[in-house]
Amino acid sequence: MAAMAHPTEHGHGGHAHSNEHGHAARGGTPRPRVAVVKFASCDGCQLTILDLEDLLLELSEHFEIVDFPEASSARSNGPYDVLFVEGSVSTPDHLRRIGELRKQARVLVTIGACATSGGIQALRNWADHDAYRAAVYPTPEFVESLARATPIAEHVPVDFELRGCPISPDQLVELLTALVTGRRPQLRDEAVCMECKRRGVVCVMSAQGIACLGQVTQTGCGAICPRMGRGCYGCFGPREQANAAGLARYLQASGERSAEEVGQLFAGFTAYSEPFRSTITDLGGTRGARRTGGAGHVAGGAYPPPGGAATGRASYLPGRPRMEGIDDDGR
Amino acid sequence: MTAAESGTREKIYEVDELTRVEGEGSLVLHVRKGKVLEARLRIFEAPRYFEQIVVERTPDEVIDIVARICGICPVAYQMSAVHAFEDLFGVKVDPEVRALRRLLYCGEWIESHALHIYLLHLPDFLGYDSAIALAHDDRPAVERGLRMKKIGNRILEILGGRPIHPVSVRVGGFSRAPRRADLEPLRAPLAAALEDAKETVKLVAGLTAPEFEREPRMVALHHPKEYPYNHGHIQSTDGVDLRPSDWDRAFREVQVEGSMALHARTKDGATYLLGPASRITLDAEQLHPIARELLAETGMADAIRTNIYWSVLARAIELTHAIAEAIDIVDGYRPPIESRVAWTPKSGVAAWSTEAPRGLLFHRYEIDGRGRVSAAQIVPPTSQNQGAIEDDLRRFAPRIIDLPDDEATLRLEQLIRSYDPCISCATHFLDVRILRD
Amino acid sequence: MMTIEVTRPERTTTAGRWYLERAGLDALVAALREDGRTVIGPTVADGAVVLAEIHSSAEMPHAVGDVQGPGRYRLTKRDDARVFGYVVGPTSWKRWVFPPDVELSTGRRTGHRVEFAPTASHPTKLAFVGVRACELAAFGVQDRVLDAGPFRDADYAARRESAFVVAVQCTTAELTCFCTSMGTGPEVEHGFDIALTELDEGFLLDVGSPAGQELVDGKLASALRPATPVEVYTAAADVAATRARIGDPLPTAGLHDRLLAQLDNPRWAQVAERCITCGNCTLACPTCFCTSVIQKTDMEGIAATNERAWDSCFSPGFARVAGGSFRSRPRDRYRQWLTHKFGTWWDQFGTTGCVGCGRCITWCPVGIDVREELMAIAPPVALSPEPIRVEPVAASFNDFVVAQVVATRQETADTVTLTLAGADPAFSKGNLGQFAMVAIPGFPPLPISISRFTVDGIELTIRGAGPATKAMTALKVGDQLGLRGPLGNNWPIERAVGRDLVIVSGGIGLAPLRPVIHALAADRRRFGDVRLYYGARTPADILYREEMERWASRGGIEVHLTVDRAGPEWEGRVGVVTQLFDQATWEGANAIAFVCGPERMMQATANTLAGRGVTPTRIFVTLERHMECGIGLCGHCQMGKYFVCRDGPVFSLLQLGDTFGREGI
Ligand SMILES: Cc1cc2nc3c(=O)[nH]c(=O)nc-3n(C[C@H](O)[C@H](O)[C@H](O)COP(=O)(O)OP(=O)(O)OC[C@H]3O[C@@H](n4cnc5c(N)ncnc54)[C@H](O)[C@@H]3O)c2cc1C
Ligand code: SF4
Ligand code: SF4
Ligand code: SF4
Ligand code: SF4
Ligand code: SF4
Ligand code: FES
């Protein structure tokens, strides 16, 4: 995480600054000024701030939220002590604004897959941009968008990043607490698997043959997908030294998945981060350059996939009569 | 916000960046000699090309992807998509799965409505910039809103792993269905939330709303036995009656004159209104008895129909409904025999509409022989409402023309917020020509 | 280095041994709960047998079995009503004695003052139901790590101390089990309060401690009756069968030294390409103890808590210091794991770190098998399959014993099987794959594989390739010939126990493999999937045709045939033998291969097998060389450093290295 390095490497930078404000807050001097801006995104990550229901009001005692258009009509142009940036750089206007905003921000935090990795919209980076525009908009020449949707760190230095689509509320609180108390945020750089195991989740890859990206994905979500009985789709992005190539090889070796299908597994919300990016490219890009399925290829992802047989829990549950069908048309 | 005056009779009101709405938009109202030249809700979200991104993907992948159109109502996107696919593939899910999907939607409605009422809308009525400012003076009210929002999120988290972009919805059911014990922690807070919701209805019914009567054409799903979430027929105050898959028989997307934006209209070109007010109007009979009674007590069903400011009350009633129904579902829940039934894909057109918190959300996918999407059309509620919103802006003009500029633009912004527009959703109605001005 | 001494007292007495009906299990759970204990036991959830709190025996698995392999776990339905008819699952008891997340202490910082307060541990009283032998051994390992050194983990000690242990003897085993190799099972011998062995209708119950005795004499008394000798015998036999089934998948002699001598082995880098460094293996392992402590504070920066969480040497940050990580490369981390578990653990704690439970193999999402890595990185000193030497008879240069042809069978136009009797008994005791030097006066003695061992003799299958062999195929019942042998080494069939076996042969090459198939069929369940791929020149040249049908129909062996040239009557495959498994769907990660045929064919086969993940350590070929003495004296059969007759004819590809298939050696 190159981004993380900034405040730690220039130690006093991040720490001293936060200290100043953190302790100052209790001393009666101004609270750190916080702003939230968005680029191309779904608003989910900034909504996570509002989703800190229990802490929201307490937070407002430690931070002064000066610009957060989704939540408040009060506006400010900066400078900001902490600037949360959601979304990827996707239009010429974004390109211009991110540079200006960086100048206004003492600590810049990117939040979410869009900002840290380009987000789902970065899948267009593999495609012909003009064709994409033409397919969605009636008069594409009027649509201003860049050929690539890119992470913020591709344009300006980033101090901290929170991963995820959306970010984890726990990690957000940890970062805010660390900022206000002047310590280093404890954001682990391990695989999702570790949390999966700590929580006693049965590995869906070993026990059900479901492809799971947890091994190559940065922890932080609390192993949500395996807990919900499905494979991780990598929304927290590749972890340090992620062996995506090794996993891709393994997933193909069994013969149940074609190269294209394995490529699509990585072509999700953090597709544009390395090494997911090159893994996707190596396996034929995002739009099936290799369309023929391998052995056991499953059309359209039917369930259960032949061969990948899920050992249905159901078979161990005592039977129970089905309920009367409900007329779902309302007629 | 600016109100530029050129001559005495001409005014252009602009709100450059609407606040307390989801996403980025602006509005412009151009009046000359009492005549409205232009009334437009502009959306300047960056395009994200979802309809193209889902091409070549499998149905389950599409469910994950379309959720990211909107962080406020991801469940709505997942629900329209999953029901579209299941309708085409002939999948019959377990009845408990059907109930769980309603519960999931209840969670999203609770979260979204509580957010809108308390964090986005109430400050308007009470004259604050934000809920945080409001909390300085009335902390219990804001805390009440946050409490309800939290229980909505909690439902989403238990069923889907997390409140935003839950992960468990799959074609055929859920990747994992909760055990009874998993739902247990919802009981007590839901019971408390019901009281909070009733309190909310009282609170908002007592607000004073600006006079602004009109009778828009209203559209919502209608189901004889239940308040509409995932099923029912598309109905309207003027007699439309269609399967949820057949939206495009009565409605279509049109390119608005002088702009690149796509708006939805009825086939004969009329605008219409979706959302809580429309649902309350068309589906009041199907409300949970608790909510129905509350509505009757307020005696404001008509006001809801004719004055968009009272959508705040419609939301409060629906909030009560969603909480009351969630309680019932939790009480009667037994884990499904099969949390996910087997299915195989089919080629053809998969289409469906469900009721997002902000109204009808229509999805249409063409599925190819390999079971993957070859084309997609997604029509979110905000872009369907856009025409009605602009109609109202026009009608509203005479009421603000004599007010001081700041106040006038504020009033306009408040009007827009009454629709709870979700601009993130509406990105594919991008109007960039104006953006360049 | 010390080794675990495993003593296995013969327990044939029925005294103090009890029988508990299957229904009585509930009485046991109830008694433990009444004792104020939280009872942890197996239950089915999310496609696996997991350990969780149980309130009655109804929550325990019934008629559930499991199938495990590298990176693979599936539940199966058993056709009996057993409650313990599976082996260890994803959870280990470590979760309760050494929990994944614990609060260690809290701290406060008010003004200039700081305070620290250890968080008191109040573990509930525990009972563990269904602890296997390897898991008891894991407790032993953890005791040494956490509770025997100069500094102790008091929380661990308290939890361990509180737990009442109901052990279970393993009457089934999976391919991932290797307790036998680690000396930890499958027999449960000590460290329990009560031990159960599951029988068809109930359990044999043994008492292992005063607490166990108290339960047997008290709350459980009414559910028990003394066990009958048949029950005691059956229980012992079932556990013995489990031991046999597991075999010895990981030869551990000298492993510590073998492994630590290999710190520079290139294989570390190779395995790191497959390893995702996810850490699953370490967290699934019942003995891994690495943790990290994280600090949490409130927003005021006043109150702080320290929480300890399971961590792993696979985490990139685990060995990080300000200047970087000491084990920055994945290969470094894999090496740390393996050398610690199987090597330096001995130096630190006087015990192995591995108890052979197989969890790290099953729950490695990409199916990396520690045993395989160990065998590749630190192979047993004797690289070749170790011959179990039978003293050959007539082992001097030109001395033969005489045997008589008692039956002949024309296999194909040019090939005959001779059944010989009356030879020295040493022949029938020979090993799979050995050969005999066969002589008819006037012809040079020839090496001929023994194609079957009978009670009082052997069979030879001979193709009339030249004058001498033609003379042999012409022999009639009652004729005699001279034999020397049995000679050479043998197919390492013990290495195939618990694995899938692929047998590939061409033409007469099936002869030396035929005894292997006989042996497999006799003890089929000890092996995984067995597949025979056989190629002949024409359909008429296929050896052992009738027998082959029996192998397929009753022997549980998949037989795939191909011919080079076929007539219209042939409906099977045409083509070379390697094409037969080009389309096959099996993976080679758990397979071992025996190959015999023309050298070209063996080479092609070896390449194909390698492509499927069968490593050179697990591919065995038999070489044909010109032989005269058969005992390493004449020098004819030399190949590189080997005398094929004496050191072979069976070699692993690893042994042969690049001499295999090289021209002119
Ligand atoms: C370990 C081993 C096991 C064998 N098992 C069998 C078996 O079970 N059934 C079977 O039919 N064949 C087997 N053979 C091969 C068999 O030994 C040869 O086919 C046979 O020696 C050919 O001799 P020949 O005199 O009949 O033919 P020719 O081709 O005429 O041999 C000419 C001469 O060359 C020499 N010669 C050629 N090949 C060999 C050889 N491999 N070993 C010794 N001398 C050779 C001999 O001096 C022989 O007289 C085995 C070979 C080996 C090394
Ligand atoms: S990262 Fe995901 S949740 Fe966050 S803004 Fe982007 S799409 Fe939304
Ligand atoms: S389910 Fe996924 S995240 Fe969990 S252990 Fe398995 S591979 Fe890792
Ligand atoms: S398991 Fe993976 S995809 Fe699922 S929420 Fe966590 S990081 Fe995202
Ligand atoms: S190293 Fe593997 S086999 Fe050995 S005890 Fe640990 S998990 Fe079990
Ligand atoms: S050996 Fe397997 S389980 Fe262990 S870290 Fe490597 S990939 Fe993960
Ligand atoms: S045959 Fe004589 S040395 Fe091998």
Describe the structure.
The complex is a heterotrimer of chains A (331), B (437) and C (665). Helices cover 37% and strands 8% of the residues of chain A. By secondary structure, chain A is an alpha/beta fold. The longest helix of chain A has 16 residues. Chain A is globular. Chain B is of the alpha+beta class. Chain B has a single domain, classed as Cytochrome-c3 Hydrogenase, chain B (Orthogonal Bundle), CATH 1.10.645. Chain B contains 16 helices and 14 strands. Chain B has a four-stranded antiparallel β-sheet with strand order 1-2-3-4. A three-stranded antiparallel β-sheet of chain B has the order 7-8-9. In chain B, helix 5 crosses helix 6. The radius of gyration of chain B is 21 Å and the shape is globular. Chain C is α+β, with helices and mostly antiparallel strands. Among the domains of chain C are: 219 residues, no CATH class; 87 residues, Beta Barrel (Elongation Factor Tu (Ef-tu), domain 3), CATH 2.40.30; 130 residues, 3-Layer(aba) Sandwich (Rossmann fold). In chain C, strands 3-2-8-9-10-11-1-12 form an eight-stranded mixed β-sheet. In chain C, strands 26-25-24-23-27-28-31 form a seven-stranded mixed β-sheet, sandwiched between helices. In chain C, strands 17-18-21-20-19-22 form a six-stranded antiparallel β-barrel. In chain C, strand 6 and strand 7 form a beta hairpin. Chains in contact: A-B, A-C. The interface between A and B is large, with 88 and 105 residues. The complex binds flavin-adenine dinucleotide (FAD), iron/sulfur cluster (SF4) (5 copies) and FE2/S2 (inorganic) cluster (FES). The site of one iron/sulfur cluster has 11 residues of chain C, from helix 10.
